[in-house]
Fold each of these.
Amino acid sequence: MVPAQSVRAVAKALAPLLPDRTPVIICAKGIERGTKKFMSDVIAETVPGAVPAILSGPSFAADVARGLPTAVTLAASDGKLAGELAQALGSATFRPYHSSDVRGVEIGGAAKNVLAIAAGVVAGRGLGASASAALTTRGFAELMRFGKAYGAKPETMMGLSGLGDLLLTCSSPQSRNFTFGVNLGRGQKPNAIHAGLAEGVFTAPVLLEMARERSVDMPVSSAVAALLAEKMSVDAAIESLLTRPLKAEA
Amino acid sequence: MVPAQSVRAVAKALAPLLPDRTPVIICAKGIERGTKKFMSDVIAETVPGAVPAILSGPSFAADVARGLPTAVTLAASDGKLAGELAQALGSATFRPYHSSDVRGVEIGGAAKNVLAIAAGVVAGRGLGASASAALTTRGFAELMRFGKAYGAKPETMMGLSGLGDLLLTCSSPQSRNFTFGVNLGRGQKPNAIHAGLAEGVFTAPVLLEMARERSVDMPVSSAVAALLAEKMSVDAAIESLLTRPLKAEA
């Protein structure tokens, strides 16, 4: 997998080799630092002749390779093309649902990595399955708010590339972001943990900046960003979430 | 915990002891067989002087008892009363979010038990974490559709008593419904497994009947009902979900 921060370089190298109007299916998840651009925008800039599409959803490579059932979202602005690509790539066990909401799919793919770090912290700190379910649910609520502010369809955020990938990433030690959070929750300093491909570490500050620009309330992601920046301890971050005023759910 | 099928009898016994206008907070989850009534309707019938409220959400008793952080939904038709009850019951670690959508809360609490059986089957059959996340996501989509057809607010279905409880129930061996599904997935016959308090076993046929009455498509719940009625094998049920035509996500 190409990390989000390397997509521009890889795309530049590929650009001269691609015939015009070639569909390019992006599998990287994240937001480019500095530019705050999503991957489809990076592709549009670096390979202007390409037709960007995006594939995202709950699919550990090992599960797909073993032929276990997997369902994902495949989006392209041209919904008809998305449907054709889904038919071409689908198999008896690999099921792409198609969509025209490219932005929604990339928002889900990027933001869930930040929330997965929070879920890892809850697990690493030993807060129990009920707390983890509550955190994932409140995290999903902020994903919905962020998506709405940036033009995503609610159905996409509730679908495989949004909720589906969030669930997988927030619950499995196979997820690099979750594991990073587990180590944080166990008391390791952010700088002492190898971030590796824990994309959420890079996404968190950019996501928060974008949330602030459109006044989106994201308490869980904010707590993650504060933890990563060592502005808050794990226990203070948990306390900050538990002492918010009790309020109506919606 | 009082199982849903016993709520009427318990409420009848309590009725003479309750002063008029006493808020009665229901913690049972399910639909009454035969009458197809939700718990708040059963209370309204048997204790007409009571004010029915409902508490539901991801909260294993063991987690609550240990003082681990827990967040749930507390609903009453009178939203102000719901807020007061939430304040009265809330503590530093037990956080009730209040709501006026009683019906939405009870739909989530009942339907998630059926979906948890499906998640258990996926785990028991060894289909992997990606398949489980996809199934939970598609299950959540049918929960949303059912809720909409029966007057629930989408925010409630996406909240702690809907999505939150679904996540907990679909992922933990502590859930009786999930465990029942695991045994099914491992090849045991439904009648050979002690249903005990696996409420979803009783809810499935009623839920499906109600879905049919309002033309709600619920493929995952239908597969569970077919498995329970021994009309389909586990592998045929999985096959039925994997061979649905590929389609748009929304």
Amino acid sequence: MLDELRAALPAGAVLTDPDLMAGYRADEAKLAVSGAPLAVVTVGSTADVVSTLRWATAHRVPVVPRGAGTGVCGGAAAIDGGIVLSLAGMRRIREIAVADLTAVVEPGVINADLGRAVAGEGLFYPPDPSSFEISTLGGNVATNAGGLRCVKYGVTRDSVLGLEVVLADGRVIQTGGRTVKNVAGYDLTGLFVGSEGTLGVITAAILRLRPKPPTEPVTFVASFPKLPGAGAAVSAIIQAGLAPSLLELIDNASINFIEDYRRMDLDRNAAALLIGQSDSARAAEDVAAMARQCEAAGADLVVVASDATESEALLEARRLHHWAVTAAGDVLTDDVGVPRGRLAELLTGIERIGAEYGMPIATVGHAGDGNLHPTFVFPHGDEAARQTALTAAGDVCRLAVELGGTIAGEHGIGSMKREWLAEQFDADTYAAHRMVKQAFDPLGILNPGRGI
Amino acid sequence: MLDELRAALPAGAVLTDPDLMAGYRADEAKLAVSGAPLAVVTVGSTADVVSTLRWATAHRVPVVPRGAGTGVCGGAAAIDGGIVLSLAGMRRIREIAVADLTAVVEPGVINADLGRAVAGEGLFYPPDPSSFEISTLGGNVATNAGGLRCVKYGVTRDSVLGLEVVLADGRVIQTGGRTVKNVAGYDLTGLFVGSEGTLGVITAAILRLRPKPPTEPVTFVASFPKLPGAGAAVSAIIQAGLAPSLLELIDNASINFIEDYRRMDLDRNAAALLIGQSDSARAAEDVAAMARQCEAAGADLVVVASDATESEALLEARRLHHWAVTAAGDVLTDDVGVPRGRLAELLTGIERIGAEYGMPIATVGHAGDGNLHPTFVFPHGDEAARQTALTAAGDVCRLAVELGGTIAGEHGIGSMKREWLAEQFDADTYAAHRMVKQAFDPLGILNPGRGI
């Protein structure tokens, strides 16, 4: 069977050596189960993807599309007896059209490489998942990746104008186009963005670029003695139309993990820190206004950076969070969203759940979007604690839904969160999703058991 | 058969009187064919829609959902033997959540009524089709309506967070939600937005509101002796990151229709006028910068308004366009989009097509989005000229596609533009759209013959 696939692809495209395959079996979801693949297929062109999917359809072989493997929900973990389809080798920027503010990229292009390629034209590509230096644009599109700048510039879907997609049976379609407005046909572009490899394989994307902001961003940090104040400040800043280009929250547990890891002189008793930024033409005035909103909402300390170096320093605590919690133990990072007005309730509820299970939950996230990452920290290799973390994470997902929110803000469902989909979707809504899956993948070979 | 429907609905919901039905047969696409419906069903609740669709499924009766009937592509024209499902009576604003910047509305709510309802909270709903004082939000959502403010705030899809939809068989689903980020499941919300009543009937929408801009907008008008200059100015303004809140174009033919209609002292020899606006916190500076971009691109006259009254006066020519062309004859308004950098080529091509057919084409539109409305003007009641207009409109659609654009920017496909879909979609891409239609409407009862 694999000989047939080898014959259809360039030499060396099909890997079966267990040592070579090992690097393609898991993604960054360390708690996800990953199987033993039949083969890893490394493609270099749309034609290779077509050949691979025709073969997979003919032989009913599950296909796991994969970019850089930086996903955190098990969406790219290998499946027993399936193939891993690595698109990392399709790394050409096909076109940069400055007058149109668009770029056409292949799925293996690294997010930051596109940024560097267009910077000389005074442009940037807004979506900035934390992994942007190592993750691929194909993976970003397949998961509808978020990031810090989303609060101003939207998520990945808001920057995708069109796609080239290979369907399960090998047909190639072109969705959307190069225009910012387009009502011809259904929004198949939006449908494939975030579909986690379950509807087709993305082989090119027409992305929307933006002019670089006119000034260096200005940053502030505000410390809140109580959670409701931090929540109120977020709502007030957004309602005032101050358009922060970043608005992050660090909760009390996170503050303490960070201080344990490196002394930053953060207030270990603060309920939360808000870190905000403006990149507008009047960034200093806008940040001053945000600082006033924080004070009015009860912040007891607000620091505004006076230059770019200070701005970077204020962001340092947020950047250290990942290293601080992973130094403290094994972690499970959740990803829930609520309407912005319910942030404080979500944070209070997370604290309650942490207390119930006797497990620290260090929460950070994109407060301006109501999207938080409660991070469960437990002793290295403690299997019982790991199970407790998964149970507690389920409680957090249920809480988010009760507050009118979502079990997944920007990381996807992957294989890790499927059991909680029923919390969010009633039976008919879930069935409507499955109708789409059934239409595009009737044989169920595209990343089965992942996403919806 | 209708008795069964009457029994399932409140008294008076089913209209069969031909005089009463007459008002529901056509939309604003005067050249579209409209049929003789079996009945008009005026619903007041989601439950009524469920009853109606269950009945329609049982009896295989085509259903044409309808808001205010302001569509211009025949998407809401009645079908022989079908029913017209009027959602205009579902006009409740269910909720306005200021802290979340969301509103939940029923489909019959008039766009401008939502604007008025939230203005007191310092908020606004950005999408502003020209019909915003009379069109319904349900219709806006079903067509993914555009408008003047889209250039800054995006199209209707960008302001819809979630939907309540009744499927063809009467099942009710909830798509999306109340959060600005959400990756649980496929983007069914985006799929239903712009689906022109062909996949389900929208019975509620969770809409995204925005803080009102801090200042009165400032307006400029620039007059260009040559088309390429106007195109270059549009690209330069957008690339400079000046974020106009409106950037409209009026071509030479339109200038002359407007001057014929009312003396405005426009330059009858100008190739095009650009009208732009900023609503930013530094609107005056931003408009001054836009004016400089226009001069650098070859504008021979640029006027900047010094107050709100002057701003309004400068917009007057754009507003008069509709009245000027309809006073001159029958009109067919097209709606094409191109990548922004191809605007001048599109305009030049439209002039060429007008000359070929000996028919004036007065073009206006949303230049900042690359979305133009070539308007074919011909003698009242001249059937041959009407056929010529349709043929010429086909040529314009083909031209837009050749330039990397779309046959439909914001008005939809309706019944009028289906014949040109094949210009834009290859066979496999078209088939992918039909797979979605087939999944959601296997019996083909939802607005058959419209949209994709």
